């Protein structure tokens, strides 16, 4: 099966080195994991994030504009 688990890897490789790509993935995961857990655990935070995503998408349905957007609700603030 190789590197491609659920969708092709190549469209997401923006670095020339796969190791740099995976390092970037892991840094994003490390940065955003607390917020993802909060989305799951806190209904108010979920509602806020959902509203922000809907606003960012212009009210469109579908997920074509998910990758590469701003992490307004994420980030290092509030970590610890």
List the uncertain runs. 63-80
Number of strands: 0
Structural class: mainly alpha
Number of helices: 2
N to C succession of SSEs: HH
Characterize the biggest β-sheet: none
Specify the overall morphology: extended
Oligomer class: single chain
Pfam family, one: CDK5_activator
Biased composition (Gly residues): 59-80
InterPro entries: CDK5_activator, Cyclin-like_sf
GO cellular component, one term: plasma membrane
Structure description:
The N and C termini lie far apart (38 Å). With 80 residues, the protein is an all-alpha fold. The chain has 2 helices and no strands. It is found in: Cell membrane; Cell projection, Neuron projection; Cytoplasm, Perinuclear region; Nucleus.
Give a brief description.
The protein is mainly alpha-helical. Helices cover 48% and strands 0% of the residues.
Give the arrangement of secondary structure elements.
Layout: H1 18-41, H2 43-56
Helix pairs in contact: 1-2
What attributes characterize this protein structure?
single chain; cyclin-dependent protein serine/threonine kinase activator activity; about 50% helix; mainly alpha; lipoprotein; extended
């Amino acid at each position: 099966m190789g590197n491609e688990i659920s969708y092709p890897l190549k469209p997401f490789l923006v670095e020339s080195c796969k190791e740099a790509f995976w390092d970037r993935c892991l840094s994003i995961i490390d940065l955003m994991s607390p917020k993802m857990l909060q989305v799951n655990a806190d209904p108010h935070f979920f509602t806020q994030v959902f509203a922000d995503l809907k606003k960012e998408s212009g009210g469109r349905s579908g997920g074509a504009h998910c990758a590469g957007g701003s992490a307004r609700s994420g980030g290092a603030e509030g970590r610890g």
